[in-house]
Amino acid sequence: MKLLSLFLSSALVLCAFLPALALSVLAVSLEQLSTRSELVFEGQVLGVESTLDPDQVGIHTFVTFRVVDVIKGEYLEDELVLRFLGGTVGDIRVAIADSTFPAVGEEGIYFVESLSRFQVNPFYGMDQGHFLILTESRGQQIMMTRSRKIITGFIPEGGAEETQLSGGIAQGVEVDDGSAFPLGVTAIQFKQKIRELVQR
Q1: In whole angstroms, what is the distance from residue 43 CA to residue 184 CA?
Q2: pTM score, two decimals?
Q3: pLDDT in tens, 135-189
């Protein structure tokens, strides 16, 4: 009973404290995402499961991906499991601003900072390293940011300012400004851009 009380108290502290930490996430560029991530891959989310970890007094969410294409790095398995801090178990919820879990069934391109070190969010730059693939009715695959803004092009940039805070979208990515029929960057074009940035 004491352990449960300790956990509940700590969970409340985490709920109040961690979102403040997330406000200090720095803006990063697409070039930084591409060159500094250990693994960049196209994948589909197969499962999302949150678990209570009494030993570390916290909640972790495990996301299982089917690996479709490795764009950068070395990974030979068909599936990959990434761990995120936070989640919901029963009535206990730990949420972190600027850190969103992938949803079951979504397809995307993901920039993983490290496969060996635990991060609050394994994506480089948190939501900045989390991109979605929208398959249109004609079968065309269009790229979107995690906030579901259609990517329409790339902006020349010399790297993000180290003191600038993240707005949730990586620098160097141009998004739809509200036009009725935006011409989106395809998944093939996006992957080619990443490979070009890595080879510079």
Answers
A1: 19
A2: 0.84
A3: 988 889 999 999 999 999 999 865 455 558 778 899 999 998 777 667 899 999 9
